[in-house]
Amino acid sequence: MSCTIIVGGFFGDEGKGKVVAHIAYQDHPTIISRGGVGPNAGHTVKVGEKEYGVRMVPSGFVYPEARLFIGTGVLVDPRIFHQEIDFLGVGDRTFIDYRCAIIEEEHIARDRSNEHLAKTIGSTGSGCGPANADRVLRIARQAKDFPELVPFLIDVPAEINAAISGGENVLLEGTQGFGISLYYGTYPFVTSKDTSASQIAADNGVGPTKIDEVIVVFKAYPTRVGEGPFSTEMPREESDRLGIQEFGTVTHRQRRIGEWDGQMAKYSAMINGCTQAAITGIDRVDEKCFGVTEFDRLTKKARDFLKKAEADIGAPITLISTGPDVSQIIDLRDEQ
Ligand code: IMP
Ligand code: MG
Hints:
Helix content is 30%, strand content 18%. It has 336 residues and is an alpha/beta fold. It has one domain (3-102, 141-221, 263-335): Adenylosuccinate Synthetase, subunit A, domain 1 (Adenylosuccinate Synthetase, Chain A, domain 1). The strands form 4 sheets. Strands 9-7-5-2-10-1-11-14-15-16 form a 10-stranded mixed β-sheet, with helices on both faces. Strand 3 (43-47) and strand 4 form a beta hairpin. The structure holds inosinic acid (IMP) and magnesium ion (MG). Residues 12-13, 37, 40-42, 121-124, 126, 128-129, 175-176, 180, 191-192, 225-227 line the site of inosinic acid.
């Protein structure tokens, strides 16, 4: 029984949502709680024929037995929250910490009209930067100030810590990725908060001594959406030749594609305190690996890639995703 954090190791969109969903089905957590910035994040989860893009509700929602929390550190946009719980039908098991700061229309307007944020940084325009600024200035309103949110309010840290003490499994999901951390990323081309595992613990009010595993998710070909340095970026013709094209879940902007970055993986694993790694998109390293669910059926090319990646990361790769569906994954955690 344990508390596990799942975070992105590169620039976001590593496929954390899918990894969270898989782990949830396997480990039966009673709580899945979100840390991270706010609705600037978009998680895509594909189950069978259905594909969902979520921005407020934890991506572990596909696992029906867990309560879903939004941690204290997260910014809540009530409009998006209501749309998602209605659409997904999860209103009876989704809860918000009463201290979450709220994104108001005016934050969104400021995010979109501010030349620096909208143009230079390439923000998602979801109001997160201005809302976090107001939170720091201590003029933001909190979830408890909004009557329509009252039915959803709880003390997230109290609930999570009680579950951990009771021997239950808890998943804490991060959003964004290491490379856009306010502290450790490519400042100023970053989001408005740290995105590392320590921040995700803090967002949920879980002390460092209570965390058992930190799973860092890396994608074989990293991507970046928005502006900023990307040392292993490929020319568009190269990624097109490889057949890789991706679009953002929130902004629908085309994502920039890069080669595996071993140095970044190593640094990211260090700061996140990575105990295990997940690699997504191994079917892009060798398309023959698409949908494979057993390690022994991976090709030599894929295995060589994983060996190198594992050496860079310095922690065992225990989860290998071979396609977008939740079922397309190799899980080696039992072999640890
Ligand atoms: P903001 O967080 O909306 O202020 O955007 C700041 C930068 O972070 C921009 O380059 C965004 O594209 C990027 N960003 C924010 N959230 C995500 C995410 O969830 N995935 C990928 N990039 C993100
Ligand atoms: Mg995303």
